[in-house]
Specification:
The protein is an alpha/beta fold and 287 residues long. The chain contains seven helices and 14 strands. It is globular, with a radius of gyration of 18 Å. It binds iron/sulfur cluster. The site of iron/sulfur cluster (SF4) has 11 residues, from loops.
């Protein structure tokens, strides 16, 4: 197994190979306020969506490959050992952020597209227990939510809930029947609503929403109203949402459309967050 290079992690450095591992990578996360250990189930850079803002270089359409679970377990154990008992923090993490915050299923594609997803969640639970970390750090699934209807994904969510984890379910705009420009995939509104309800029924679920301007145009009032209506209807249907993670463009897109994207003004993001709060939603804003 490759030794961890002695290079300080930066807040902007979310490369998946910074530890030299295949499946496990450390990042200093502004989101987490410390070190987040990422688990990448898509080392083949394959996703079933192609969001315009996606930060994965060389993204291709597809699913996760067959995973070597023994290797994944060994990598996670080595990483946690180095963080807890080695010199990882001193050598690689800026002062003030030397705290292990969470494990995040967040890789170069959609994690739940792995048919071994449920096994991996269980494996992570076992390794966390071995290190005495179970229930002490967060476990987050960052997902586009498109495969929540699969039984093995639902099993993984049940295990995630037992670990005290949470789902971050991607919802960038109100889903309309048809092609989503932002996510470059066909969606059905009813299907998105159903999958969101499944997720929230099995594990605490936050929405993750990325807002930006495309060709200089921010989402218009009709789009924002439709988005808020969709959330309102979900809550009327009894879907328990933990809240909304509202993001701007934190890092540059690696997709061909990158030059067409620009960040929304902070004041615009704050005004949208205020509307959500006024609608009764918990909002965490990262403009
Ligand atoms: S769902 Fe995530 S990994 Fe897939 S294209 Fe969108 S941002 Fe990239």
């Amino acid at each position: 197994m490759t030794a961890i290079p002695l290079q300080t992690l930066q807040l902007t450095d979310h490369r998946r190979d910074s530890a030299g591992f295949t499946y496990v990578y450390p990042v200093v996360s502004r989101r987490a306020g410390g070190v987040s250990v990422g688990i990448n189930l898509n080392p083949n850079d394959a996703c079933n969506w192609r969001c315009l803002y996606c930060q994965v270089p060389g993204l291709t359409r597809g699913s996760a490959p067959v995973l070597d679970l023994a290797q994944l377990r060994a990598e996670l154990s080595a990483m946690l050992h180095d963080i807890l008992h080695g010199d990882f923090m001193v050598q690689r993490v800026p002062e003030g952020l030397r705290q292990l915050k969470d494990i995040a299923f967040s890789g170069n594609g959609e994690p739940t597209s792995s048919h071994q997803f449920a096994e991996v969640v269980a494996l992570v639970g076992t390794v966390l227990a071995e290190f005495g970390l179970a229930g002490k750090i967060g476990v987050v699934l960052i997902s586009n939510g498109s495969l929540m209807h699969r039984p093995e994904v639902q099993q993984g969510l049940r295990t995630l809930a037992q670990l005290g984890g949470e789902v971050w379910f991607k919802l960038d705009r109100a889903p309309a029947d048809g092609f989503s420009t932002v996510n470059q995939v066909s969606l059905q509104c009813e299907g998105v609503a159903r999958r969101l309800a499944i997720s929230a029924s099995l594990c605490p679920t936050w929405l993750q929403t990325c807002m930006f301007a495309l060709d200089g145009a921010l989402p218009d009032e009709a789009e924002l109203a439709a988005y808020l209506d969709f959330l309102g209807e979900a809550r009327r249907q009894g879907v328990a949402l933990a809240g909304v993670l509202l993001y701007g463009l934190a890092r540059p897109s690696m997709q061909p459309e990158a030059p067409r994207l620009s960040a929304a003004p902070v004041a615009w993001m704050e005004a949208l967050a205020a509307r959500m709060v006024a609608a009764g939603l918990v909002v965490r804003l990262s403009p």
